[in-house]
Records
---
Amino acid sequence: AGSAPDIRKAVETSDCLLAIGVRRVDTTSGSFSDALPTERIDVRVDAVDIGPDNYQSVYLKELLRRVADSVPPRASAYPRPSTAMQAPSVAEVPPGPLTQEAYWNLIQGFIREGDVLIAEDGTSEAGCWGLQLPPRCTFVTQAVWGSIGYTVGSVLGTLLAAPERRHLLFVGDGSFQLTAQEVSTMLRHDLKPIIFLINNGGYTVERAICGKDARFNDIANWAYADLPKVLHPGTTARTFVVKTAFELQAALAAPHDSMIFIEAVMDKYDAPQAVFDAGHGMADVDYGPRGPQHRPG
């Protein structure tokens, strides 16, 4: 339910759908709103299902190599989106408090070819799903497991694996609080990620499922942008607290000669539409038609 309509149609009406390593769980199926063809080919690590038939000891690596070698190359029927993206001009940046829409529009113009994007579960991941990526970008996430806090350690790993590339971490305040200490290791090794942290007072993605105003979805507010100085006194990290689109635009123009840490303060009820679609879909699965997702507001 969270997919673009043309993407969903292409997948669900395919006459030969090859599902490679798919784990059909709530977070990968739009809360089980998918209608995949029953005759699809499900390829797992060591077995394959074709419709009702199961084949054991068919290994994913060998199978994909044979498929790639046997199918002649052809142009995709689906055109790639344009990668000629420009950051909004000053005149186009909306006034007032920073919103999710303005935030992701500015991020879209900031991304460049070859970037590594690490997207945390929740609002950050949903916002990144809507981005059009230039060539040779790498997108790292783990929606299957829902393991919040994963990305802070993950960006440490990608930085060490590919130090010549630019690494952008997109994380929310709730997830960040689980593994924030890994920023200390990045600073210790003079690594230079660009960290985008959304400070919206807790678990917004959970508010869309259950407990819009419940205390269990609130968290303690930290001075997030001050943490680099706490974790590594004397650091040259550039840190920003942004509350408007103009402030975010100025932070994005900062020289990238050290770690950049941008704390973006936004309303706790503001989120990409995919968060509400997926959250309400999950609530339908969990609570049914009498659940909180059907109440006004």
---
Amino acid sequence: MTERSSKSKKQGKKPRLYSYRIRQSPYYDATQRYGCKSYTPYNNMYLPLVYKDLLSDYWSLKKDVTLWDVGCERQVEITGPDAFKFLQHLTPRNLTKFKIGQCYYVPLTNADGGIVNDPVALRLDENKFWLSVADREILLWAKGLAAGLKMQVSIQEPDVSPLAVQGPKSFDLMADLLGDWVRTLKYFWFKETEIKGIPFILARTGWSKQGGYELFLQDGQYGDQLWEIIMDAGKPYNIQPGTPCWIERIESGLLNYWEDVTDSTNPYEVGMGRFVDLDQDVDFVGKEALKKINAEGIKRKLVGLEIHTEPLTQTAEFWVVECNHQTVGIITSAVYSPDLKKNIAYAMVSIECSDLGTDLKVDLGEVKADATVVPLPFVDNRDKYLAGL
């Protein structure tokens, strides 16, 4: 039994589980009250998918402010005398400038150079870190590596549950709750704070590029109370419950693990080469493989596409991509953008077909649609997520 589930039982709550293999976050009851229509398993927890409908949730995020239960971003806590050294062995990113109070995007690689996960790391102290992980079991993977490397670290899952406040009005909302200092909190930095005695870390992060924060609640028993405090304060800003938005994240150039990124893709293929430092002394996992890949050059690349056909449905398959009647890759994500009024997609294609302006075909089954390689991101939202800085 986890610490969070045991707390729920102490409070006398009756768990409403569809499966005892899948956990509820501290915000689960609130998502039920506010009308969440469907969930998906993510890190063995329930991740809300939709409230009103996909388009309504999308426009709420882009125009106002939304509150997301992202407790499924389970934290892996690394502490101990070797914590920093151990983290540096997990990622090809050079961490020498990683400061306390800062967040770092840290792709984790395997021995072949493939991406095992792409979490955001938070440095809470000299030798205390959280990894906010994507959908994969990283806790056990990290424990195994620590044992193999014989490092003095403790690795566990703390009682920490992220809650995201995302959208252009998030700055006003959080300033109302915490003060104007939140407006100038640097992008990818955090500060420990509280509301009415509820302890959390406020980070200027989130899986959208509409501006916003993540609140890392440090005591799960307050989940429902924290949700209601934010929803009540958000009424003047037309706050709505929301979810990580499929359409917006593609528009904004955010990649999704298991679709655009997997353990068979390496950082160079998916635009993460800037996070690989082959010159550092650390012998991180996958270093030799990445040296070889870098020397030989990649043979495929993730690109942005515009697909010239009728508006796609909100779900996509791994459609085949063709060039000159030859299969050269697959679509990894695709969607119709209501804002851009066009179909946009990510595709993993042969390097020979990855140049901007290249004409391709996408086999949608009933039709082979014309497509064009275009720059990423599809929408540049720096004015939103860097607002006030």
---
Amino acid sequence: FKAATSQVNKKHQAYFEKIKADQKENLAAKTVLCEKAEAIASREIDSSNGWNDASKELDALQKEWKGIGFASKKENQKIYDRFRAACDQFYNRKREYYSQFKDQMTRNMEKKIELGEKAEAMKESTDWKETTDKLVELQKQWKAIGPVARKYSDDLWKMFTTACDTFFEAKREATKELR
């Protein structure tokens, strides 16, 4: 009986030793993922493409995290909290970036609407020299403003260019008659 229980105890002990070893490996793997996530979260990103690429990297890390087993009870929650903090930091920064980006695009749209209205007001002018100079200046300002939301971009551009084209076509016809 003693030999049999000794054998069972050895198997029992080996089983739990393997679990402990696996948990140590899992903790080490999760620590590496935490370091990668923290590096991504602290990276300086200044473009939409950069944010999209970093998001894909972080999503891959999260998927990999789910594939790793548990660490010890004592360490599992700590390591998870560390990983979650890095992910939260990243997504908060991303949300802030896009909020500012959206605000900037709204301001750009307002500026372009204003330029379009100015161009509309000048399209019937027959003061060729002064209006030409003003429209060329408006076109330079338009280029310098920056992007607007795609769903408004084409309409704003059409409004602006139609006004400019109307004036320049009338100027071309008027100067043709003078020749």
---
Amino acid sequence: LPLAVEAFANYPARVDRQWNAETGELTSEIGYQPTVEPLRLPRATTATIELDRQLAAGLEVQVAATFRESSALAPLVVPATSGPLPIASTGSSRYRDFQISARRQWSGDQQVFVSYVASSAVGERNDFSTLFRELDRAIVLPAGRSRLSSDARHRWIGWGTFNLPAGIVASPVLEWRSGFPYSILDARQAYVGTPNGQEFPAFAALDMVVYRTFSARGRAADIGVQIFNATRHFNPRDVYAVAGASQFGSFTNSVGTIVRGFMLIKW
């Protein structure tokens, strides 16, 4: 359990009021009193099955599946009317994934690795640690389960290490995955439609490390360059999700190409 859960009962009482936009008349008022119900330690049951097979010299394949069920989580239970606003051990979550991967190796530590993962993650929308990461939240929404914000349904990743002339080593990484889900909200921050029912655009990035090893006086150092998102693919991290806003549905905050130099000294 998060350590701050027990302190939730000492949070200030919350009052949610609505007024008529034209007359200024108070139309509704709901008051919440934070409370903590008797809590239990969360439980998780996980099963993993994995099969590995060498198909030929230097060629290996792996197939794996994971199932995880969690219970007695401690979400915030938001009532529809005034009264207690409890933290209770009523939450649950579910995770499934299927993975298939292959690796091909050559001499000189050269290799290529390719992996595909299909997964599903469903959990509590009002997970305490997520809601109160910054100590408090102005508006709390109805509880329930939905896709988790980190749920990427499909993911491909491939990377390799190759020896080039002049002692140069190149290691590219190519990743593609489904976009993370997000919720559409109205002007009062209430859900519009299914929570986490929308998705960001698919993420794609080509990263690369290129380096060369230099030796002097019995010491060695790798000097090279790191390139992130070499293709400058648009990978937004934020979205204007408020229905009716002028930029509603627009994605933003993508990071372009980043180039960094590095040096690794070996003793």
